[in-house]
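Workshop exercise sheet. Pairs work together: one partner reads the sequence aloud, the other fills in the structure field after running the prediction. Swap roles for the next sheet.
Pair: D.N. / O.F.
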Amino acid sequence: MKAWTISDEFWNEIKEYIPERKRDENKIYKRKPGGGRKPLDKRKVIEGIFYALSTT
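Structure field:
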């Protein structure tokens, strides 16, 4: 296991603290819902942050 990979146990502990993306009801958007780039996997984003922190 590499230093920046997240174990399943750790992921199950922290995933509920990562907020869900929501559209602001008061904002006027140029694109309809679902348009644009699809969101990245949250676990891979956290692992990327850990990788960047471990290599600096």
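Discussion prompt: The mean pLDDT is 87. What would you look at next?
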